[in-house]
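In response to reviewer comment 3 from the previous cycle, which asked for concrete evidence that the modeling workflow produces usable outputs, we include below a single protein chain processed end to end. The sequence was submitted unchanged, and the resulting structure tokens are shown without manual editing.
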Amino acid sequence: MARKRSEPPPSNVSRIGGVNIERSHVAAGGDIVGGDKISLDGSDSRLETLFRDLVTAVNTSPSIPEAQRTEVLAKSSQLRTELAKPEPDLGSLASLKSFLASQGAGIAAAAAAIFQYPPVQNTLKVLTERFLGA
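The workflow returned the following structure tokens.
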């Protein structure tokens, strides 16, 4: 008598990048990149809005002297550049996040919104897992 192949329980759902795997059903969508490359979609309008909000927070912050404002704007630009890389550097991201968080509540909140944005969180998660060897 032939054995009946058992299916995994319905709660066994996994997500890998832009690929959803549920039992024997695989659905691909979103931004899919190779296994050794991590990338944020460069045309993400929500991420662009978050960076505009960060620049606005820097430009309207009363606690930052003009000379320092240029440095904070440069660090904001570095954050955008680092996140656009195929493989962002966790150390650089941590340093930029720490710097921006130290520049006052408005700038810290705007920077935090970028790091809380789901595609950025996913990128950080994958980088951290790779770093830890998971």
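The CA atoms of residues 25 and 38 lie 24 Å apart. We consider this sufficient to address the reviewer's concern, and the full set will be provided in the supplementary archive.
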